[in-house]
Design brief:
alpha+beta, Elongation Factor Tu (Ef-tu), domain 3, 4 helices, 26% strand, binds adenosine-5'-diphosphate, binds magnesium ion
């Protein structure tokens, strides 16, 4: 996938209330402004990479890119599970991510909750292991994660695309 690694950031918004947190796998959702900038070659599926909330530490993450039911599945959604236990929710904060690799396509599990949980824990293990590769570890230290705008309200929707252009142009 030629667009990887892919850098982006945006405010964490409320998701579809699918109950990810109840499954033990909360997923932080990006707004349309971030989703709309995704390059066409980044298809639906599960990705892994690095993420940081605000000016916080950089953690491993897995991201699901799927079709957004709010838009009758014509637009994508981006949901990031940060592999870290946070003390509090972080709605409204800026989430910065770099997607570095692809794990698998999206699957439809219907009501097979057990299978879903197992699949996601496998994805998390795969992400953790792959991110230990030197080529991926170095992205954790990328300047992208130390140049987070200080306030979510001060970030216009174009900020994410500007940083993407800069970061992905290198
Ligand atoms: P929603 O439908 O609003 O996305 P979720 O059940 O998916 O609800 O929970 C997502 C929210 O949980 C995030 O927006 C964030 O504020 C919080 N959260 C807490 N820990 C994490 C984590 N490790 N990864 C992602 N989000 C987390
Ligand atoms: Mg969610």
């Amino acid at each position: 996938m030629k667009s990887l690694p892919y850098f982006c950031r945006g405010e964490v918004i409320r998701g579809f209330g699918r109950g990810s947190k109840e499954l033990g796998i909360p997923t932080a959702n990006f707004p349309d402004s971030v989703v709309d900038n995704l390059p066409a070659d980044i298809g639906t599926g599960i990705y892994y990479g690095w993420a940081c909330v605000g000016n916080g530490d950089v953690y491993k993450m897995v991201m699901s890119i799927g079709w957004n039911p709010y838009y009758k599945n014509t637009k994508k959604s981006m949901e990031t599970h940060v592999i870290h236990t946070f003390k509090e929710d972080f709605y409204g904060e800026i989430l910065s991510v770099v997607m570095v690799g692809y794990i698998r396509p999206e699957r439809s599990y219907d009501s097979l909750v057990e299978a879903l949980i197992t699949a996601i824990s496998n994805d998390i293990e795969e992400a953790k292991a792959k991110l230990e590769l030197p080529e991926h570890l170095k992205l954790r230290k990328d300047n992208f994660f130390t140049s987070v705008p200080s306030s979510s309200s001060a970030v216009p929707s174009t900020a994410a695309s500007t940083s993407q252009t800069i970061m992905n142009g290198h």
